[in-house]
C-alpha cells in the first residue's frame, strides 16, 4: 500500500468515526422541561411531544360517530407540569371536525381557553387559531402546575356533590332510572311537589364537552334548594325534573360528543332508542312513558347544550305548531328579561330533525326546545363565559319558568 493510499484510508476512517459519533448525538433526546398529565378525571385523550423549539405539540384524539363520517374534537383538558416561571407554548392539532357530514369551518377568532393555577379559580384567555385548524396557547407558569381546558370543567365528582346535597333536601329526590353503556348510573332529580300545577323537564350534558349545561342546572338547583321566598313561590307553580348528565361515560373519558358506542344522544329522537347502543336515551324514554302514564307529562322540556351561537333552537316538526311557537316566543322574551340571554331564537328556515326537542314534540307531545349556550362569548355580558356566568343564568331560570307557567 502506498503511503498516500494509507493516509486517505486513515482519513476516511477518522471521518466515518466522526459521522458515527454525530449520528449517536442525533439519536439522543433532550429531557423535556414540561410534562403533560392526562391521567385524571375528565382529562382529554391526546398524544403529545416536545418539538425542537421546546413547544408542546398536542394531537387530540377524535371522538367518532358510529356508521357516520362525523367526528369531533372540541374538548381539551390537561395538566401542564413545569417549573414556576416557565414560558409554555402549546400547539393543539386535530380540529378537522366533521359535523352533519360536512367539514367544519376554520376555528373562530373568538376561540378561548380556560386556565387554572390552583384547580379552583379559572381564567378565560384567547387562543390564536393557526392555519390548518390548530390552536396556539401561550402562558407563563404561575405555579408548578396549570390546568388547561376548552371550557371550565364540570366533572362527575361535581355532579356527585350536587346529588348528595339534593338527597339531604326534604323537597327533592334523586331516582336512578338506568345505566349508561359503561354501567354508570343515570339519575333523574326532582325538586318540588309532584302535584304542582306544572312540570318542567331539563336534560344537560348530552354532549360530553358541553359543561355549560351542567353549570346552568347547578345554578337552578342551588336557587330552588335555597328555600328563599322566590324559590318557595316558584315551586308552588312548578315541579322540576332533571337528567343532569346524560353522557356520563363521555364526561368520564374527557371526550367531546358521542356516547361510549359512538352514538349522538341528540339525534334519532324520531324513533325509539336502541337499549344497547343508546341506553342513555332508552332509559329516559322509559321514564317519560311512565310519567305520561301517571298523568305527569312535562309541560315544557329544555335540552341544554353549548355551541358557538347561543340560540334557543325552536323545534319545527310537521303539523300545527302555532301554540308551541307562541309559547317559545314567550320563553324567548322571558329569557331576555330575566337573564343575560340576548342571542334569540332560531329562524323558521332552521331545522335540525332528530333532536330531543323535535322528538319530544313529535313522539310525546311535549313542548320542547334545545337551548344552546355560546361557549366562546356571552354577548349580553360582553365576556367569555366562566362557570359563574352559567350558574347565574341557572339561578335566574327559576324566575323565567315561573313567569312562563303563570
Ligand atoms: Zn350539544
UniProtKB/TrEMBL annotation:
The keyword Signal applies. It comes from the Bacteria. Gene3D superfamilies: 2.60.40.3120, Zn peptidases. Transmembrane segments: none annotated. Its cofactor is Zn(2+). Residues 152-406 form the Peptidase M14 domain. Residues 1-24 form the signal peptide. Keywords: Signal. Belongs to the peptidase M14 family. PANTHER family: CYTOSOLIC CARBOXYPEPTIDASE, CYTOSOLIC CARBOXYPEPTIDASE 1. This is Peptidase M14 domain-containing protein. It comes from Dyadobacter beijingensis. The lineage of its organism: Bacteria, Pseudomonadati, Bacteroidota, Cytophagia, Cytophagales.
